[in-house]
């Protein structure tokens, strides 16, 4: 039986969902079970990607999917190798670099589950210490190995968020929630200390369209309304009236409208902290203070006024507003790294057909697949990521076992891949147990982690958190490596 030895590049939800699906459709009791081997590589030393380093700390229920991922990792046919960066430049200094060329000879199949890791900038807002992407703050409060600089919260009273999706509201909520409320969650101690020193009093959340087009979910808005120590600036009631001739609001729009009409739990003017939803506004310029006036002047953000055209797009109209603000945070989505293998710069992610990767000429690259944000772009939630991953796993099995009943989705003639049209990049025969020598050496040196390492770190983080009365106390890489050197010395398993 031909081996299906799959390398998965990426260790986030999509990667684990694909692996879990493959393992469940080819259970160890199956006659085909021995054909399947999966090696998962992640540039981060810990698994789970956005679940560990993207989910807001006060949303622990979202992380419950890791139980399913751990079950998949318990299958001996799945191996995890963390701290290995494949094929692109990495913002993480401690990773082991490995070229795709060095990886390919060891695998018959390849899955790209690398997500979208590059924030989309705003053309009117050049990055600076006073204008940063939301991802920088998310990585700060989740202690991401990229280690962005902490925001200067002790001298920041006004923060402006550009974009009104769930990530923007996550950031706003973290800045406005009392640290005493956050202390029980998975918030690193240095982050809590910085939030204790924070001088933030107001957060403006700017969107270029109106409340009926807002990207946030009802759940996220409800949490903002319930903040214990902050109040929303009341909206102009005219904004909450559906435009004449517009279709009836959807169920979610109606719920959002009700929340906005009711307002926050705390009445405006009764709290020290406030926040606002600034609809129909678009950044035009950010004037930074002159170096000679540092400490006395604040950045000035110019917002142009907008309205919706007949197609529902935001278009500029006369008028502008100027905000004095201390920090601008852009939350406008993400795209794939342009240097990623088979990335399509125009799309912002990998071009695929039912999970199969296509080259620049539109040809299928045989046995190379992509899933999750790497294939779809940065959109959707964990549930949609799971469904996409399951479909990609089915496609992998359809291609490897054509005509056999090892999948759950039907194959149409349109979806079938003609072998003579596919581009060949992977070998058909490999050593099913071998990994690149660089990875083997890195593992023995303690630079590369495996899933047993993660289990030991996970238990220790939870233990440390229990001592502090919180969900867990996270380790940075240096702490984890030092801990593992004693907890799981490599010579025991060499």
- Helix run count: 15
Radius of gyration, in angstroms, nearest whole number: 24 Å
Strand order, largest beta sheet: 3-2-1-6-22-21-20
Contiguous low-pLDDT stretches (5 residues minimum) are: 410-419
Overall geometry comes to globular
Commentary on this structure:
With 494 residues, this protein is α/β, with parallel strands linked by helices. 28% of the residues lie in helices and 20% in strands. A hairpin with a 5-residue loop joins strand 21 (356-358) and strand 22. Helix 1 packs across helix 3 and helix 6 (166-176) packs parallel to helix 9. The longest helix has 19 residues, at 382-400. The protein is globular. 43% of the residues are buried. Residues 410-419 have low confidence and may be disordered.
Give a short overview.
This protein is of the alpha/beta class and about 500 residues long. It has helices at about 15-25, 50-55, 65-75, 100-105, 135-140, 165-175, 180, 190-195, 220-225, 250-260, 375, 380-400, 435-445, 450-470, 475-485, and strands at about 5-10, 35-40, 80, 85, 95-100, 110, 120, 130-135, 160, 200-205, 230, 275-280, 280-285, 300-310, 315-325, 325-330, 335, 345, 350, 350-355, 355-360, 365-370.
Describe the SSE topology.
Layout: E1 4-9, H1 13-25, E2 36-42, H2 50-53, H3 66-73, E3 78-82, E4 84-86, E5 96-98, H4 100-103, E6 109-112, E7 118-119, E8 131-133, H5 134-141, E9 158-162, H6 166-176, H7 179-182, H8 189-196, E10 202-206, H9 218-225, E11 230-232, H10 251-262, E12 273-278, E13 281-287, E14 300-308, E15 314-324, E16 327-330, E17 334-335, E18 343-344, E19 349-350, E20 352-353, E21 356-358, E22 364-370, H11 373-376, H12 382-400, H13 437-444, H14 451-468, H15 477-487
Parallel strand pairs: 1-2, 1-6, 2-3, 4-5, 6-22, 8-16, 9-10, 9-16, 10-12, 11-12
Antiparallel strand pairs: 7-17, 13-14, 14-15, 18-19, 20-21, 21-22
Helix pairs in contact: 1-3, 1-12, 6-9, 9-10
């Amino acid at each position: 039986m031909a081996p299906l030895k799959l390398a998965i590049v990426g260790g986030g939800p999509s990667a684990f969902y694909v692996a879990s699906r493959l393992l469940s459709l080819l259970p160890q009791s199956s006659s085909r079970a021995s054909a399947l081997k999966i090696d998962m590589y992640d540039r981060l030393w810990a698994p789970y990607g956005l679940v560990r380093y993207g989910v807001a700390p006060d949303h622990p229920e979202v992380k419950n999917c890791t139980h399913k991922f751990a079950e998949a990792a318990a299958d001996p046919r799945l191996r995890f190798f963390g701290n290995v960066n494949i094929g692109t430049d990495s913002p993480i200094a401690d990773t082991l670099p490995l070229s795709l060329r060095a990886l390919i000879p060891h695998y018959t199949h390849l899955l790209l589950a690398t997500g979208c890791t590059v924030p989309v900038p705003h053309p009117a807002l050049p990055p600076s210490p006073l204008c940063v992407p939301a991802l920088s703050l998310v990585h700060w409060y989740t202690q991401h190995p990229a280690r962005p600089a902490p925001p200067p919260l002790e001298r920041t009273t006004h923060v402006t968020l550009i974009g009104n999706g769930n990530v923007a509201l996550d950031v706003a909520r973290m800045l406005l929630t009392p640290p005493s409320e956050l202390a029980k969650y998975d918030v690193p101690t240095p982050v809590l200390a910085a939030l204790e020193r924070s001088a933030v009093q107001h957060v403006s959340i700017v969107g270029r369209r109106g409340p009926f087009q807002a990207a946030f979910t009802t759940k996220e808005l409800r949490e903002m309304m319930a903040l214990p120590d902050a109040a929303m600036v009341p909206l102009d009631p005219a904004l909450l009236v559906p435009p004449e001739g517009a279709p009836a609001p959807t169920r979610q729009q109606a719920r959002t409208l009700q929340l906005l009409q009711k307002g926050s739990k705390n009445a405006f003017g009764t709290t020290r902290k406030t926040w606002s939803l600034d609809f129909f506004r678009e950044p035009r310029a950010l004037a930074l203070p002159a170096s000679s006036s540092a400490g006395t002047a604040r950045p000035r953000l110019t917002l142009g006024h907008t309205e919706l055209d007949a197609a529902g797009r935001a278009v500029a109209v006369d008028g502008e507003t100027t905000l004095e603000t201390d920090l601008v945070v852009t939350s406008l989505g993400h795209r794939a790294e342009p240097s990623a293998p088979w990335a399509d710069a125009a799309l912002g992610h990998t071009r695929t057909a039912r999970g199969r990767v296509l080259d620049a000429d539109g040809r299928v690259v045989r046995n190379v697949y992509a899933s999750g944000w790497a294939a779809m772009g940065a959109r959707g939630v964990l549930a949609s990521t799971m469904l996409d991953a399951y479909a990609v796993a089915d496609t992998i099995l359809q291609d490897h076992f054509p005509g056999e009943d090892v999948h759950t989705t039907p194959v149409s003639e349109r979806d079938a891949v003609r072998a003579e049209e596919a581009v060949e990049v992977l070998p058909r025969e490999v050593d099913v147990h071998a990994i690149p020598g660089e990875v083997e050496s890195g593992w023995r040196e303690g630079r590369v982690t495996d899933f047993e390492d993660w289990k030991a770190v996970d238990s220790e983080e939870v233990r440390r958190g229990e001592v502090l009365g919180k969900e867990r106390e996270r380790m940075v890489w240096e702490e984890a490596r030092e801990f593992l050197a004693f907890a799981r010395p490599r010579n025991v398993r060499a």
